[in-house]
Fold:
Amino acid sequence: DTGVSQDPRHKITKRGQNVTFRCDPISEHNRLYWYRQTLGQGPEFLTYFQNEAQLEKSRLLSDRFSAERPKGSFSTLEIQRTEQGDSAMYLCASSPGTHSYNEQFFGPGTRLTVL
Amino acid sequence: QQQVKQSPQSLIVQKGGIPIINCAYENTAFDYFPWYQQFPGKGPALLIAIRPDVSEKKEGRFTISFNKSAKQFSLHIMDSQPGDSATYFCAAFNNAGNMLTFGGGTRLMVKP
Structure:
């Protein structure tokens, strides 16, 4: 257990529905990252926050994807109008943010299945 | 576009063997190269990392070899154990982008 928690761990939804995932980082960590991992592939970077500021979001897969970190603590990732191609593991990671090379600690992920 | 290429996709060794996993990159802006280990149902966990100003780094049974001119790096696991059976990912960090780019992963099985 790295100290990064994600909820829910599994989500099954029907195509066209909206889903929201939550990530709670390690409490003193300033940076929070979202990745997507499809079966048999490495994680793919989506976006990251420095405290409450979203500093990189160009890698979000489409305008159906959005993320927030309103108070610089937990974060949410929302997918609107889900498609079958959105089925994947969504990983959250956090790091202290004191140095660019700080280790990123990953949570267990939320596995999304879109029917 | 896969910027970090990893091979092989899968690897089977006997206990005590030395599996070797290779990665290559194109982007010369990458300046930090970690390796992650992932067990089923878990997130990736950092194993060992290297910067391009050194050619080798060893931590316990894990060794990274780095060839800056060839833009290649590899992970060696000494005296491999069945508990090392997992998926291994190489990655590269671009400080300008503040993001990790992962390779495709290698599924390792160590037979008893």
